[in-house]
Hints:
4 helices, 52% helix, five-stranded antiparallel β-sheet
Amino acid sequence: xxxxxxxxxxxxxxxxxxxxxxxxxxxxxxxxxxxxxxxxxxxxxxxxxxxxxxxxxxxxxxxxxxxxxxxxxxxxxxxxxxxxxxxxxxxxxxxxxxxxxxxxxxxxxxxxxxxxxxxxxxxxxxxxxxxxxxxxxxxxxxxxxxxxxxxxxxxxxxxxxxxxxxxxxxxx
Length: 172
């Protein structure tokens, strides 16, 4: 009491201030208790699961689904590797040039078709159309992007076009 008298503080103000602090602390305590209650309710609902379903069972079910998916992914990966092996031998690069083989025929009815694999192996198909003599078709082999016979200008152009194509991309 002497301390309050020395500083000129009325004890009534101190009591009112402390009462205000106590009321404020009580309000904060109530808010904290309500939040704790709500959190406990949510936790209980989470742990019980829907319709009383056990959380542990739900987790184990998800793990079994993951195991099934892993085996399916493994199967799919094997299938993709098999497809990649087959793609190497598939014709996937194409070059085509239309041209007039003979002066008397117009309309570019003749054509050169080149089909190559990813490794540039394949063939050249040249179809020359003539109104007097009919249609002639020639096939020439291509190995590693090179033909072992002399190529016409149109055949070389179609071969270059086919080699410039990137073909199919390797899966995975």
